[in-house]
Amino acid sequence: MSACCGPARDAASGTPKGPAMASGTGSLPGVGDERQRLERLAGPAPQQLQLVGLPGGTFRSGSEDSGAYPEDGEGPVRKASVGPFAIGATTVTIAEFAVFVVDTGYRTDAERHGDSLVFAGLLPKGLRDRSPAVSATPWWRQVDGACWFRPEGPGSSVDRRADHPVTHVSRFDAEAYARWVGARLPTETEWEYAARGGLDQQPYPWGSVMEPSGRPRMNVFTGEFPDKPSGPVGTEPASSFPPNAYGLYNMTGNVWEWTSSRASAGDARPVLRGGSYMCHASYCRRYRTSARTFSTAETSLGHTGFRLALTTGRGRG
Ligand SMILES: [Ca+2]
Fold first, then answer.
1. 20 to 30 A from 87, CA-CA: which of 41, 197, 312, 315?
2. How far is the CA of 256 from the centre of ligand 1 (A)?
3. Strand pairing partners for 311?
4. Sign of the Cα pseudo-torsion (253, 282, 289, 307, in order)
5. What is the pLDDT of residues 99-125, one digit of tens each?
């Protein structure tokens, strides 16, 4: 990831690769009580995938405007085409991910590593002080035990966040979930086509103004980053704020979203899109339709999730 967006887990540090499907339920977090808790979480998950079908087409991708980051490869503006596909109206929620875990016993990369990265501003002081800071970006803390169902480490829970985006999922985890439901991750180009909602070269999914009539349209950091927020910090429900013209929620802000694309021909790092609740104009304007960041497939962070995609129409296999 761009240094300000989040540190990456080092692929060379003995990271086990690929999904790990555990057999049986013995490997569910904590078993017993924990399983019941997961089943409760899974309860409100919708029984059907909430995907929006899009016709595809040609559009102008990327940006060269003053808000863009050329070093991220946002420009030059070029014509891009996508075939017909469907994409999640929202990112995958905690409830939906819980259904997957209850069914498969899947353990995420964060659980297998025993830690994940959490925004310091979300941690109680004691835990914050004893969790190592990432040197270039000290607002990130490596928190033992942090994972998708304990987003702020020991003592935290997602009991009241079932409809929020699942976070602390690596791209391997996102791919495993997508395979399980018979879907896939969107390509970067599909993601951008979807985020633009039919608009041409607009920085936001709804148009040119970040806060039309002074009303926030996405969940980004407000106030003074990182220590003096002027509002709540963290994820919001996956379907908060009005959707774009395609009916897609929180394409920008809330959580970064994994795509299936790589940074460039010479750079195999996975691309993420959309920015998160940690983006702020003072240090990271990546809450725009053309913004990109990069990470390693084993990295998990408290501001990163994913949405699903499916090929439709004639491309369907
Ligand atoms: Ca997003």
1. 41
2. 5
3. 85
4. negative
5. 999 999 999 999 999 999 999 999 999
Cα-to-centroid distance, 93 and ligand 1 (Å): 12
3 state SS of 52:
strand
How many whole angstroms from 165 Cα to the centroid of ligand 1? 9
Within 10 Å of residue 17's Cβ, how many Cβ atoms? 10
Q: What spacing in Å lies between the alpha carbon of 143 and ligand 1's midpoint?
A: 23
Ranges of H-type helices in the chain: 33-42, 94-104, 109-113, 125-130, 171-181, 188-196
* Ligand 1 centroid to residue 31 C-alpha, Å: 32
DSSP state of 27: T
Which residue has 């997508």 as its token pair? 178
pLDDT band at 5 (very low <50, low <70, confident <90, very high): confident
What's the predicted TM-score (pTM) here?
A: 0.91
Q: What ranges make up the beta strands (E) of the chain?
A: 51-54, 57-61, 78-82, 85-88, 115-119, 133-134, 137-144, 223-224, 228-229, 256-264, 267-273, 292-294, 304-305, 309-311
Q: How far is CA 250 from the centre of its chain?
A: 10
Tell me the CB-side half-sphere exposure of residue 26, using CA atoms within 13 A: 2
Distance in Å, CA 257 to ligand 1 centroid: 6
Residue 32 Cα, ligand 1 centroid: separation in angstroms?
34
